[in-house]
Amino acid sequence: MIHIEEPKSPWEAFHMDWVTALPPSGDKGYDACLVIVDRYRKTPIFLRCHKDETAM
C-alpha cells in the first residue's frame, strides 16, 4: 500500500464526488450535488447542481 502524504496547506489536495439521482428540489429543480472536501481542513463543501451539468 502506498502512503499518501498529508497536505501542508488548505486546497493543496482535495477530493470531489458527485451525488446524483436525488429528487428535484428548489425553484430550479436541482437533482445532484457536487461534494468537495479539502483534505487539509476535512471540511465538506456541497454545491447543488443538475446531473447533466457541463463545463460551460
From TrEMBL:
GO terms for molecular function: nucleic acid binding. SUPFAM superfamilies: Ribonuclease H-like. This is Uncharacterized protein. It comes from Austropuccinia psidii MF-1.
